[in-house]
Write a structure and sequence with these properties.
This protein has helices at residues 2-9, 14-26, 69-74, 118-127, 147-158, 183-200, 216-228, 264-278, 293-302, 311-316, 320-335, and strands at residues 45-47, 50-52, 56-58, 79-85, 98-101, 106-109, 133-138, 164-168, 206-210, 233-236, 257-260, 283-287, 306-309. It is of the alpha/beta class.
C-alpha cells in the first residue's frame, strides 16, 4: 500500500508529511502489520537484560514527543527510542528545516531539538505504559546557561520511566554540542551523571550517541571514557554534517544533519572501529542507512549488537521491520546460524 501512496506523500513538505505520519499512528490509521517472522528464534535477543523479539529499533528523532511509541512496537520494532527531549519546551530552528533527497534516499534536517519539554513528555509516558523496551534520548536546551546540568535534570526526570537513557552529544544542529566529544568534557559529564544515578539509587542504563564525523584519535579517547565510566552501550552514529560529495539532489547544500543511505558505509566503518576497541565490553547500536536485510546484516558483521533506523522508514514505509526480517532471514539461513548474534563482528 505504501508504494501506491508514496508519490503523494513525497509531494508534501517533509515536516508536514512527518506530522501526518505521527497523527496516522496516533489514531491507528496505519493498518496492522502481519509479521511472518514474529517470535522467530533467529532474531530473539536481550537488550539491557530485557528479552526483545528482534534487534531492530526505531531511532530517536521520529517520535520526539513520545506520542506513538506503542504504535511503533505494534509495527514490529524490537525497541523504540524517543526524543531528543530537553528540560524545557523549545521550538527548534526556523522552518524549513527538513529536506528530502529522494535520489539519494536521504534526509537533511536542522530541527534543533524541537520538543514539548521533559515535564510534558514524562507525564505522557506515565499515562501510557510502554508495550516494549523504551529508550529516552536527552539533550540540553539551546539557550541554557549550564548544559551539563540540563543532562542531569533530564536524567532525574526520566530515570524511573525509561528502560535506558541516551546522552545525545552528537547532533550537528545545536551549536557546539559536539564539543562533548572532547575527552575531558565527556568524562566530566559521565562522572556527574554517575553521581546522580547513585543519589537516585537508579539502575537505568546509560548509552552515548556519537557523531559519524569523528577521527581515529577521537574514537580511542571516547572509548577510554566510556569504558572508565561503565557505560552500557554506544549508539554509532548520529547524522553527519559532511559526506556531501556524492549527493545528487539539488538540496544537498542545505545545512544540517544528513541521514540515510549516504552515511551507511561511514557509520558501518565506525562501528567496526569501535567494535575492535571494545571487544564485547560495551554493546553497540548501529545506525545509518539501515533500510534492508542486507544493510542490517552488514552492521551486525561490523560489530553492531542491535540496529536502529528512521530515514529507512520514510523511504520504505511502515512495514520496514517485516521487510528487513524477511531479507535478513535469507542471509542468516545461508550462513547456517541459529541466531543473528552468531555473526556479530564476523566481518567477511
Amino acid at each position: 500500500m505504501f508504494s501506491n501512496i508514496r508519490s503523494l506523500i513525497f509531494k508534501l513538505d517533509p515536516e508536514t508529511a512527518h506530522s501526518l505520519a505521527i497523527k496516522s499512528l496516533k489514531f491507528n490509521f496505519v493498518p496492522n502489520i502481519h509479521e511472518e517472522e514474529k517470535n522467530s528464534s533467529l532474531f530473539k535477543t536481550k537488550l539491557f537484560n530485557r528479552d526483545i523479539e528482534n534487534p531492530i529499533g526505531m531511532a530517536a528523532g521520529f517520535d520526539k514527543n513520545a506520542e506513538v511509541y506503542n504504535s511503533l512496537f505494534k509495527l514490529g520494532f524490537g525497541f523504540v527510542e524517543v526524543g531528543t527531549v530537553t528540560p524545557l519546551k523549545q521550538y527548534g530552528n526556523p522552518k524549513p528545516r527538513v529536506f528530502r533527497l529522494v535520489e539519494d534516499e536521504a534526509l537533511i534536517n536542522r530541527l534543533g531539538f524541537n520538543n514539548l519539554g521533559a515535564k510534558n513528555i514524562v507525564n505522557r509516558i506515565k499515562k501510557n505504559n510502554p508495550l516494549g523496551l523504551l529508550g529516552i534520548n536527552i539533550g540540553p536546551n539551546k539557550d541554557t546557561k549550564d548544559r551539563l546540568n540540563d543532562y542531569i535534570e533530564c536524567f532525574r526526570t526520566f530515570h524511573d520511566v525509561a528502560d535506558y537513557i541516551t546522552i545525545n552529544i552528537s547532533s550537528p544542529n545545536t551549536e557546539d554540542l559536539r564539543s562533548f566529544h572532547n575527552q575531558t568534557k565527556l568524562n566530566e559529564l559521565l562522572k556527574q551523571l554517575d553521581l546522580e544515578k547513585k543519589t537516585l539509587n537508579s539502575k537505568t542504563p546509560i548509552t552515548v550517541k556519537v557523531s559519524p564525523d569523528i577521527g581515529d584519535e577521537e574514537i580511542k579517547q571516547i572509548s577510554e571514557v566510556l569504558l572508565d565510566n561503565n557505560i552500557a552501550a554506544i549508539i554509532v552514529s548520529n547524522t553527519s554534517d559532511s559526506t556531501r560529495d556524492n549527493l545528487r539532489n539539488t538540496q544537498s547544500y542545505q545545512k544540517g544533519g544528513l541521514s540515510g543511505k549516504p552515511i551507511e558505509s561511514k557509520s558501518t566503518r565506525l562501528i567496526s572501529k569501535f567494535y575492535e576497541v571494545f571487544n564485547g565490553r560495551i554493546k553497540i547500536i548501529g545506525v545509518g542507512g539501515v533500510d534492508s536485510g542486507k544493510s542490517a546484516y552488514e552492521k551486525f558483521l561490523a560489530g553492531a549488537n542491535y540496529v536502529q533506523l528512521y530515514t529507512g522508514m520514510v523511504f520504505r514505509g511502515p512495514n520496514i521491520v517485516n521487510l528487513i526480517k524477511k531479507e535478513l532471514k535469507e542471509l542468516l539461513l545461508k550462513d547456517g546460524v541459529k541466531n543473528f548474534s552468531e555473526i556479530i563482528g564476523k566481518t567477511k
